[in-house]
Design brief:
The protein has 228 residues and is α/β, with parallel strands linked by helices. It has one domain (2-223): TIM Barrel (Alpha-Beta Barrel), CATH 3.20.20. The chain contains nine helices and eight strands. An eight-stranded parallel sheet has the order 1-8-7-6-5-4-3-2. Helix 3 packs parallel to helix 4 and helix 6 runs parallel beside helix 8 (204-221). The longest helix is centred in the last third of the chain and has 18 residues, at 204-221. Substrate binds at residues 8, 64, 140-143, 173-175, 195-196.
Length: 228
């Protein structure tokens, strides 16, 4: 099972986003953090920047909406060029309807959970999704330390995915680096958002390759992967 590495442009130079996107062209997706200073205490970028970024790179965009009223705004990010759109279940008024709308517009539908949000109440929603994002830090800022207490939640989520026989990607975001990615992969994650671990490296493209190699090696030995 292939590991996917999604560099987060939250750690990139915002004045050079087109160049920063090219610096990681070997990545699977480019992770775009959208923050509105309401759902999280930070403000980043919006639809116009996503439109420009989509024109500037061939790497598909993975938009993570840390915003209020995603039911209203998420479809616009699909129209702006995002290939995957993640909304937070804590902010969504009608998550099933929203996931179906994102899919109907041609993008992958993803749902994110903050660290304190359990996965179990949303088990029945999983078939409506293409990806589930487990936040491994509190959303809002890059460069935070990885929360090891999220590893059991990743494991439980992987068990639910396997229980229902779903082709559902399991993404982790927050503090993912060379020192934490193997633990995430062993627990069941297969899509990894990495910000400073990529853009803080001398060679971002090589950092992506190295992280993928680590994740794939850990996955190959993981019990959850061996069951497939």
């Amino acid at each position: 099972m292939a590991a996917q590495i999604n560099p987060s442009i939250l750690s990139a130079d915002f004045a050079r986003l087109a160049d920063e996107a090219k610096a990681v062209e070997g990545a699977d997706w480019l992770h775009v953090d959208v923050m509105d200073n309401h759902f999280v205490p930070n403000l980043t970028l919006g639809v116009p920047v996503v439109e420009s970024l989509a024109r500037a790179t061939d790497t598909p965009l993975d938009c993570h909406l840390m915003i209020e009223a995603p039911d209203r705004w998420a479809p616009q990010y699909v129209e702006a060029g995002a290939g995957s759109v993640t909304f937070h279940v804590e902010a969504a008024a009608a998550p099933v309807r929203l996931a179906r709308e994102i899919r109907a517009k041609g993008a992958r539908a993803s749902m994110a959970l903050k660290p304190a949000t359990p996965i179990e109440p949303y088990e029945d929603l999983l078939p409506e999704l293409d990806m589930l994002l487990i936040m491994t830090v509190e959303p809002g800022f890059g460069g935070q330390a990885f929360l090891d207490i999220m590893l059991p939640k990743i494991r439980r989520t992987r068990e639910l995915i396997s229980k229902h026989g779903l082709e559902l990607w399991l993404q982790v975001d927050g503090g993912v680096s060379a020192s934490t990615i193997e633990r995430c992969a062993d627990a069941g994650a297969d899509v990894f958002v990495a910000g400073s671990a990529v853009y803080g490296a001398n060679d971002p493209a090589e950092a992506v390759r190295a992280l993928r190699t680590q994740a794939e090696a850990a996955t190959a030995k993981a019990s959850w992967a061996c069951d497939h």
